[in-house]
Design brief:
Length: 119
């Protein structure tokens, strides 16, 4: 049974930085395309950053929605079974609960980690 455990969120002032971590069981980080998803109250959960798997024909490639491009960096550490999201120059619009999962999501959602950016 795959488990996804997110951590690293918190309260930060606009312009600050956070690094989110997602510990994923098994070898899914190398097998599946992965993504960080964000959910805000009253809105659907959506992907903000993704990373292709080792098996992707073009190799491991990161992609971002325009609103976070240039500010967020998605990465992984296979040895630690951990997916990361380095967030810099955070803005209030980045506020939400962040989750990790495959893309498209195949596994049960974890608890998520709250990111709150004050202005």
């Amino acid at each position: 049974q795959v488990q996804l455990v997110e951590s690293g969120g918190g309260l930060v002032q606009a312009g600050g930085s956070l690094r989110l971590s997602c510990v994923a069981s098994g070898r899914i980080l190398s097998i599946y395309n992965m993504a960080w998803y964000r959910q805000v109250p009253g809105k659907e959960r959506s992907s903000v950053a993704s990373l292709t798997a080792d098996t992707h024909p073009s190799g491991v490639i990161a992609n971002y929605v325009p609103s976070v491009s240039g500010r967020f960096t998605i990465s992984r550490d296979i040895a630690k079974s951990t997916l990361y999201l380095q967030m810099t120059n955070l803005q209030p619009e980045d506020t939400g609960v962040y989750y990790c999962n495959s893309r498209p999501p195949n596994f049960e959602w974890g608890q998520g980690t709250q990111v709150t950016v004050s202005s």
